[in-house]
Design goal:
Length: 411
């Protein structure tokens, strides 16, 4: 005997009308699967470039561009990854007669914006599509380390493989990575250094910004003038405002830009982008801002040479003569390719820029998890309903079929 605890009149599915059995969930699962696949195809792949992919792109640039030469300047802590320098200069111009700018990227491995910005700028310069770059290189030489911390970059950790925060290591030089970057500085003797970073989500101050000295010296005033011009032309020009932060000699001096200014008397700035996800439109905006900052420095030296010459002339002591002791440039057939083989990277260096293997972004994995959870719940509820409650098929007055779901109770 049973009581009808719950009954609902619903149109019977065609399969039920013919067989007297409940319809299966195949069509629903197929629809959800199709929807998920379309979502996966529509979403962009992970935008962050791995160390091996970066090495491939640099190798390609070094082999095909007369403006970009790539140098191996040291090993990361693991010994499996090298630290690479891209020297961007006109081969027909003596580098001694140019303004030399050193750009350091990704001292913190979990801040990929600067690496993507540097690679994007290098690709454009190599292809001849960076506006005004060729003319500016008659006045400027740009030295870019796209990934100071390759071990941390591949592990997506702030510190290096020994647990050292590289941007708190300047002056101590406990990390082999900061030692390598400092060797580049001494070989190039730049008139300006910029250290590229991104804020963490936990940082109290997270706006796009530049940080420079506020010590009242003539050199400090010259850096401040450059900072204000960058704020106006880069921030307002890209529609992403740049704030200014100042520091004095009482602050921690082991950060790269502070060490360069206070100990080496070299004009320097810290560049920070906002915190955020490492994919999607917001990430692209942050990369665009960082890339435009680098390109602006390159072009501004040609547009305002007196301002940049003042930076060099105000340095005390005067900037020593560079040695350019960087070794022999590498290309796709040289030590860069051999290093990739030692690191276990089997993909050959192609004649076109190396592309990242396709990886689904986190948002797609999140969508997949939601899809799986919803599909599982629907299937379980339908099965529970069919198992716990009896199904009685009856014909109504019009000859149709009605589905009455009943819950059995012993009585």
């Amino acid at each position: 005997m049973y009581d009808v605890a719950f009954a609902q009149r619903i149109p019977a599915p065609r399969a039920l009308a013919k067989s007297g059995k409940p319809a299966d969930n195949t069509s629903m699962v197929r629809s959800l699967t199709t929807l998920f696949l379309l979502l996966a195809i529509a979403m962009p792949a992970n935008a962050v470039t791995s160390y091996s992919a970066m090495a491939g792109r640099l190798a390609d640039l070094g082999s095909r561009s007369e403006l970009v030469k790539v140098y191996n300047v040291g090993k990361a802590t693991s010994g499996d990854r090298s630290i690479w320098l891209a020297a961007v200069r006109d081969p027909n111009v003596d580098a001694l007669n140019t303004t030399r700018i050193l750009v350091l990227c990704r001292q913190h491995g979990d801040e990929p914006v600067s690496t993507e910005a540097a690679l994007g700028l290098l690709d454009r310069i190599g292809a001849g599509t960076a506006p005004g770059a060729r003319e500016a290189l008659k006045h400027t030489s740009l030295y870019i380390v796209p990934m100071v911390n390759p071990d941390g970059a591949d592990a997506l950790t702030r510190r290096n493989a020994r647990g050292i925060d590289l941007n708190r290591d300047w002056g101590r030089f406990d990390g082999v990575e900061t030692q390598a970057a400092y060797r580049v500085f001494k070989a190039v003797r730049p008139q300006f250094v910029i250290d590229m970073h991104s804020w963490d989500k936990e940082d109290p101050y997270r706006a796009n910004c530049l940080e420079g000295p506020r010590d009242g010296s003539e050199l400090g005033q010259a850096v401040r003038s450059l900072e204000e011009r960058a704020k106006s032309e880069v921030g307002e020009g890209t529609g992403q405002p740049l704030s200014e932060i100042g520091y004095d000699r009482s602050t921690e001096g082991t950060l790269c830009h502070r060490f360069m200014f206070e100990q080496m008397r070299t004009p320097s700035l810290l560049f920070e982008t906002t915190a955020g996800m490492d994919e999607g439109p917001e990430f692209t905006k942050r990369v665009d801002l960082a890339r435009n900052m680098m390109l602006w420095m390159l072009r501004d030296t040609a547009a305002n040479p007196d301002s940049w010459h003042r930076l060099a002339s105000d340095a005390n002591p005067p900037t020593p003569r560079p040695t350019f002791a960087l070794g022999t440039p590498v290309d796709a057939s040289g030590s860069l390719a051999r290093q990739r083989e030692r690191a276990g990277v089997r993909a050959p260096v192609a004649a076109t820029p190396t592309r990242e293997p396709f990886r689904l972004p986190r948002t797609v994995w999140w969508a997949f998890g939601m899809y799986a959870a919803v599909a599982l719940c629907v299937v379980m509820l339908r099965n529970q309903s069919n198992d716990a409650g009896g199904i009685r098929i009856e014909r109504d007055a019009r000859g149709g079929i009605s589905d009455y779901r009943a819950v059995y109770r012993q009585g």
